[in-house]
Design goal:
The complex is a heterodimer of chains A (196) and B (206).
Chain A lengths: L1 H12 L10 H6 L4 H30 L8 H23 L1 H7 L3 H4 L3 H13 L3 H31 L9 H16 L1 H9 L2
Helix pairs in contact in A: 1-8, 1-10, 3-4, 3-7, 3-8, 4-5, 7-8
Chain B lengths: L2 H7 L14 H6 L4 H24 L9 H23 L1 H7 L10 H11 L4 H31 L3 E2 L2 E2 L15 H28 L1
Antiparallel strand pairs in B: 1-2
Classes of the chains: A mainly alpha (196), B mainly alpha (206).
Chain lengths: 196, 206
C-alpha cells in the first residue's frame, strides 16, 4: 500500500515540477520538442532511480552509523556526478543504441537539481533503501509526465499569436502555472483514496 | 581596475534571475514571502562570493579536465557551512527553506559564474562579481517574494511584524501556492521585456 501511495503521490500530487519546483532548468530548456523531451525523460528516470537507491544506501550504511550526516550534501553530489559518469561509460560499452539515444542528455543531468532533490527528500522522510528507490522512480516519472505534456503544449505555442513581450520564457512559465493549477486537482483524489 | 563594472554587472544588466533566467528552482520555491527570499539570497551571496574567491585563487592549479568536479566540491563545502550556520542560528528559516539550502550546490548560477568568470579572472574581480550577482539574485527574490506575499496574504511581514496590520483585501491564496509562483515569474519577465522593448523602440525612433 505504501508503495502505491508513494508512486501515485510522487507522480500526481507532489509532482517535482508543479508542486516542488525541482528540475526546472531542463524542464524549460529541453521542452521545445516532444521527441527531445522524451529522450531526456528516459535518461532522468534511469539516473534518478539509481541515484535515489545509491544515496539511500550510502546514508543508511555509512553516514548514519558513523554520525557523518553533515557530509550529506558533499557526498551525495559527488555520488550523483560519478554515477552519471559511470552510467555514460557503461551504456557506451553495453548498449550503443541506448547510448546514442540518451548520450547528449546524460551530462546535463548532473546539474538537474531534481536528482539531488529527490535523494534529499527520501532521506528527510526516513525511507528505507527500497522505498527511496520507489520514491526516486515516482519522482522521475512525475517529472517525465510533466515535461512531455509541456513539450506538447509548447509545440502548439510556437504557432500561436502571442504578444511580443511574452514570447519565449514568460509564456512558458505562465502555461506551466496553468498546468500546476490543473495538477492541484489531484490532491482531492489522494485524500479521497488514501485517507483512512 | 574595473571592479565596479564587475560588481554592477550582476545587479541589472546581467541580473541572474530576470536577465539570464538561471537557477529557477529556488527562485520560484522560496519566494512565498519577502523574508524567505531575503534569507535565501543571503545564503546564495555567501556561497557565491566564497566559491568565486577560492576558485579564482586555485584557477591555475585545477586541471582543466576535472574542473567541474573540483568546482562542485568547493561549492558543496560552502553550502555545508551555510547549512550548519543556519540550522544553529535561524532554525525556523532553515525549516522553511528546507531542501533548497542544500540544493544551492546544484544552482546553475553558482556553477555558471565559477565556470564563466571566477576560473578566468583575478581574485578581487571574482569577489566583486560574486557579491554583485548575489545581490542581484537577492533583490530579484525579494521583489518576487513581496509580490506573492502581498497578493497571497494581503499583507507584508518584515522581520516578524506585519506592515499593514490586518489583511488589506480578500487574499488570493493561489499566489502563495505553486501555480502562483510560475504565473508571477512569467508576468514579471513579460513586464520587463515590455519595458526594454519599448525603450528600444524609442531609441530607434530617435
Amino acid at each position: 500500500m505504501e508503495i502505491i501511495a508513494i508512486l501515485l503521490g510522487g507522480i500526481l500530487i507532489n509532482n517535482l515540477v508543479f508542486a516542488q519546483f525541482l528540475g526546472l532548468c531542463p524542464f524549460v530548456g529541453v521542452s521545445k520538442q516532444v521527441e527531445t523531451a522524451t529522450g531526456m525523460s528516459a535518461a532522468v528516470v534511469f539516473v534518478m532511480t539509481m541515484a535515489a537507491a545509491v544515496t539511500a544506501a550510502l546514508n543508511t550504511l555509512v553516514l548514519r552509523p558513523y554520525g557523518l550526516q553533515y557530509l550529506e550534501t558533499v557526498t551525495f553530489i559527488l555520488v550523483i556526478a560519478s554515477l552519471v559518469q559511470f552510467v555514460e561509460t557503461f551504456l557506451r560499452k553495453a548498449s550503443p543504441v541506448l547510448h546514442r539515444a540518451l548520450g547528449i542528455y546524460l551530462p546535463l543531468i548532473t546539474t538537474n537539481c531534481a536528482v539531488l532533490g529527490a535523494a534529499l527528500i527520501s532521506v528527510r522522510k526516513g525511507y528505507s533503501i527500497g522505498l527511496s528507490a520507489v520514491n526516486g522512480l515516482a519522482g522521475s516519472l512525475g517529472w517525465s509526465l510533466a515535461i512531455i505534456l509541456f513539450a506538447g503544449i509548447r509545440e502548439r505555442l510556437e504557432l500561436a499569436d502571442i504578444p511580443e513581450s511574452l514570447k519565449g520564457f514568460p509564456v512558458a512559465l505562465i502555461s506551466t502555472g496553468l498546468m500546476a493549477i490543473a495538477f492541484l486537482g489531484f490532491q482531492g483524489l489522494f485524500r479521497f483514496v488514501f485517507q483512512r | 581596475m574595473n571592479l565596479w563594472k564587475d560588481f554592477s554587472n550582476g545587479l541589472v544588466r546581467e541580473n541572474p534571475v530576470f536577465r539570464l533566467v538561471l537557477g529557477l528552482c529556488p527562485v520560484l520555491a522560496v519566494t512565498t514571502a519577502l523574508m524567505n527570499g531575503f534569507w535565501m539570497g543571503v545564503a546564495v551571496i555567501f556561497v557565491l562570493t566564497c566559491s568565486n574567491v577560492i576558485i579564482s585563487v586555485l584557477r591555475n592549479f585545477i586541471p582543466a579536465h576535472i574542473r567541474i568536479p573540483c568546482f562542485i566540491v568547493v561549492i558543496a563545502t560552502f553550502v555545508t557551512i551555510v547549512q550548519m550556520t543556519m540550522n544553529a542560528y535561524l532554525p525556523e528559516m532553515y525549516d522553511i527553506l528546507g531542501i533548497f539550502v542544500p540544493l544551492i550546490v546544484v544552482n546553475c548560477i553558482i556553477l555558471a559564474r565559477a565556470e564563466a568568470f571566477a576560473s578566468k579572472n583575478r581574485v578581487l574581480n571574482a569577489a566583486a562579481d560574486g557579491i554583485g550577482m548575489g545581490i542581484g539574485f537577492t533583490v530579484a527574490l525579494m521583489i518576487l517574494g513581496a509580490i506573492r506575499e502581498f497578493l497571497g496574504t494581503g499583507n507584508l511581514v518584515l522581520n516578524g511584524t506585519a506592515l499593514f496590520g490586518g489583511p488589506l483585501f480578500e487574499p488570493a491564496v493561489i499566489m502563495i501556492m505553486p501555480p502562483g509562483a510560475f504565473i508571477t515569474m512569467g508576468l514579471v519577465l513579460g513586464l520587463l521585456n515590455a519595458i526594454s522593448n519599448r525603450s528600444k523602440a524609442r531609441a530607434k525612433a530617435r
